Amino acid sequence: MSWTVADAVDHKGFPADRTKTGGWVPAALILGIEICERLSTMGIAVNLVTYLIGTMHMPSATSANIVTDFMGTSFLLCLLGGFLADSFLGRYKTIGIFAVVQTLGTGMLATVTKLPQLRPPPCKARNSCEPATGFQMGILYVALYIIALGTGGLKSSVSGFGTDQFDDKDEKEKSQMAYFFNRFFFFISLGTLMAVTVLVYLQDEVGRSWAYGICSVSMFIAILIFFSGTKRYRYKKSTGSPIVHIFQVIVAAINKRKMDLPYNLSLLYEDTPEASRIQHTDQFHFLDKAAIVASDDFVHPGSAPNPWKLCSVTRVEEVKMMVRLLPIWATTIIFWTTYAQMITFSVEQASTMERSIGSFQIPAGSLTVFFVAAILITCAVYDRVIMPLWKKWKGKPGFTNLQRIAIGLVLSTLGMAAAAVVEKKRLSVAKASGNAATLPLSVFLLIPQFFLVGSGEAFIYTGQLDFFITQSPKGMKTMSTGLFLTTLSLGFFVSSFLVTVVKKVTGNHGSQGWLADKIDNGRLDCFYGLLAILGVVNFIVYIICAVWYKPKNTKTAAVQMENTGNGSFAEEKC
């Protein structure tokens, strides 16, 4: 085995010495950034709605939309972070820059929540509250979206830079990579648990500014630790952004839209080495026109063609493969719309219910601990019980990725149905008690909706990740992961859109409708019921798309997962 890693360099640009760079220690330094990012983002998200309603005196629906827009933007900016990392900065610089951005954002949020001038005065009476001014909300928005920018940049590169520290051509390091992915998920879960328990408790009992200040300081320390490993990291050269490659095919196909495809498809342009070629397929013939050779494509004999004018068949087929993913991609968005309710309206429900255990009162935002627990329990049961039984019965090591997605969609739909039933009960108690500040109803009635949706995430997250990694081209793994993350982003944005539409449609003739400023005066159960119905319709469409989808050859997918090291994550995640 060579002392150097073939496709990696050290911090000086020389071939990376495997005895001095990479391995578990540098990867562990990178994990510190991830746990602090998760602590900050989830600690803010799960309890932000109570701050907006209780301190900033914003209406219920508006508060929910602010939270979902913040989370949606965080995930959407992963595409920007990935593009910058692939095309210009590299993963190391991207992590460093955006970690600093997030540190500044959480520091600013700590300041915003501390200064009394940046929030409205306390309510004089229960129904006499002065809402936050445009200036006060504007400063809050600036802090939140600086954090969203930092989160997006970090998420796009942390896992990739972690895997760069291992050589998948070396058996020992390949096994270490699998262990790294296992620990990566553990740290994500650990960060989330700390966020929804310790951090939320500090926000409610000590002060939000202290809690957010802890996030900022911890991220600053994580940055120092991250930079301390500069000399020990392995750096892999960027091969260019897959987004650019996709646009090149689309532009070339549009420019040649009036040209006819040759009768013999072997005349289409192909310059990819034989071992890496993808065979031509019959779908999406319009894209094939990008590979038609025109007289002016080669300016100089022997020179490479302009990729914006002529693309190889393999490059065209890569884009086709990404297009085939889109129906499955679209039908998984609704799950994350359901997920959004767990950190908005469900937390608001909890804030009105009895949360005391003896002398200790559970913070409303901490109810999401049942959500995280459901994920971990489901993963354990799946690994230790379902997979062995399924293998014994069917001879297969667990459900396929499409089956896991389907199970996740079903569980989330059942979660919304359960949420509708519980909310109907909560509203009847609220009406009977005259809208008391704390209803004589245990908050643990909300556990079924948290548990069902949490279990659904355990299946759908791993199913989506496995699907997008194994069914995408080898050169577009980063792009496919970004595509997966956009389902989370769009799910939050769809939630905001639905809330806005439902509030407008049901709030006519002086009525506040289903989503009133105070949930005790609305019909949140009807909104949950609407989401359950949409879940059923979406599931039917998903089944149609899953039947239509033609998966890649299993052997090819397995080889690509092995070559990229991403397969370990899909398997170890749950």
Short structural description:
By secondary structure, this protein is mainly α.
Structural descriptors:
574 residues; mainly alpha; Growth Hormone, Chain: A; 3 domains; two-stranded antiparallel sheet; two-stranded parallel sheet; 17 helices; 6 strands; 3% strand
Q: What Rg is obtained from the alpha carbons, in whole angstroms?
A: 25 Å
Q: Class of the largest domain, according to the CATH hierarchy?
A: Mainly Alpha
Along the chain, the helix and strand elements come as EEHHHHHHHHHHEEEHHEHHHHH
Could you tell me how far the N terminus lies from the C terminus, measured between alpha carbons in angstroms?
Answer: 33 Å
Biggest β-sheet, characterized?
2 strands, antiparallel
Measured as a percent range, the helix fraction is: 55-70%
Category from helices, strands and their pairing: mainly alpha
Rounded mean pLDDT is 84
| CATH architecture annotation name of the largest domain | Up-down Bundle
Morphology call = globular
Number of separate strands: 6
What are the low-pLDDT stretches, counting only 5+ consecutive residues below 50? 553-573
Q: Approximately how much beta-strand content do the residues carry?
A: under 5%
Membrane topology: Multi-pass membrane protein
Transmembrane segments: 70-89, 96-115, 135-154, 184-203, 209-227, 325-342, 362-382, 402-421, 441-461, 482-502, 527-549
Pfam families: PTR2
InterPro entries: MFS_trans_sf (IPR036259), POT_fam (IPR000109), PTR2_symporter_CS (IPR018456)
